[in-house]
Design a protein that fits this description.
Strand content: under 5%
Oligomer: single chain
Order of helices and strands: HH
Helix content: 40-55%
Structural class: mainly alpha
Shape: elongated
Number of strands: 0
Length: about 70
C-alpha cells in the first residue's frame, strides 16, 4: 500500500474525525472509500461481469428506428 499526504482545512478535519467516530472506522478508511467512489464514478457504471456474455441488450428491430 502506498502513502499519500493530503492537506485538509480545519473544518474538513473536524468533520472527518466526527464521521470516523460515528461510523466506528478510521479516518484512513473513510478517505480510501471516498477515493474508491470517486474513481468508480470517473470510470462510469461499466457492464457487470455476468452481463458481458449476454451481448447487446437492444437491437435494431425496424429500419425506420434510429441507430
Amino acid at each position: 500500500m502506498a502513502k499519500l499526504m493530503v492537506s485538509l482545512d480545519d473544518d474538513q478535519m473536524v468533520e472527518l474525525g466526527e464521521l470516523a467516530r460515528e461510523s466506528k472506522v478510521s479516518e484512513n478508511d473513510i478517505v480510501r472509500e471516498a477515493i474508491d467512489r470517486l474513481l468508480q464514478a470517473h470510470r462510469g457504471p461499466g457492464t457487470p461481469r455476468f452481463a458481458r456474455r449476454l451481448g447487446p441488450l437492444v437491437t435494431k428491430v425496424h429500419d425506420s428506428l434510429p441507430d
